[in-house]
From TrEMBL:
Pfam families found in the cross-reference section: NmrA (PF05368)
Organism of derivation: Glarea lozoyensis (strain ATCC 20868 / MF5171)
Lineage: Eukaryota, Fungi, Dikarya, Ascomycota, Pezizomycotina
GO molecular function: oxidoreductase activity
Source taxon at top rank: Eukaryota
Keywords, ordered alphabetically: NADP, Oxidoreductase
Protein name: NAD(P)-binding Rossmann-fold containing protein
NADP listed as a keyword: yes
Record-annotated NmrA-like domain positions: 5-136
Matching InterPro entries: NAD(P)-bd_dom_sf, NmrA-like, NmrA/Isoflavone_reductase-like, PCBER-like
UniProt key word Transferase: no
Amino acid sequence: MTFIKNIAIVGGSGQMGTPLVKALVESKRFNLTAITRSESDSTFPPTVNVLRGDYDSEDFLQSSFSNQEVLIIILATTAPKDLQPRLIRAATAVAVSYILPTEFGPDTANSALAQAVPFLFPKKSLRDQIKASQSSSLIAVVNGLWFDFSLAGGFFGINIKERTARLYDDGQTLFSTTTLAQVARGVTKLFELPSSELEKFKNHFVYVSSFAVSQTQILRSVQKATGTSNEDWKISSVPVDEAIEMGLAEFQNGNFKGLLDVLYGNNSKPGMGGNFEHKLNNELLGLESEDLDIVVNKIVDCIENKM
């Protein structure tokens, strides 16, 4: 029985990369290599092999990816548009077995959702690039919206500090969402599978989540954690289609914050694929669901201790 051993990661010091590196290191099953720019001051755990160089150099990229079985790419939306195709081209040139492109979000296999959110649809061309190579295989990780990042940032429409909540429609639509740590555990468990099991995910999506919840359920959990009730909050609602339309108009006028309503609104819109619990691979990966109240309590404690 064989297992994956050598994993490289680009973007290992960001919001998603940091907990993923931590989980892979703690597994003690992998030789992990972090690839970063020469000028980067990012730091990594001592057991991680760090390669610094020029992302514009094909020689550097190919030598960095050589002998790697897996390449994980986690780039910010602000990264140069040609960077990820170049990373993929270099990885396929040296036949990296599995490439995980920058997905780690909503279900882009759902064409309606992918087409509705401007920065989701271009991901298809990257998946196609990997599959067309014939030397490498794609694995696309779907985890929905990042729960802890979104709640702490107020992106679910719930502002813990200000005690305000803005709900899409009645706030009852369920959507799948995952904590950053749960995503990291899911990817780690994926590559702990025997190679014969891992092969089942070749050129496919893998789905993980912490839970499926609605805005109203999140609000109730936050109120429980803060010892508050509806009377302590300013609660409003907006038709989800109206919020999406307004957000898209703002984005097209140069206000990137408008994308929040486009992204979160579409994930909260019935029939758009925000709820993918029926596709989950949690059980196969041995990944347990998380408890909403426990997760929310930790986030609330963190926010209120900073107030």
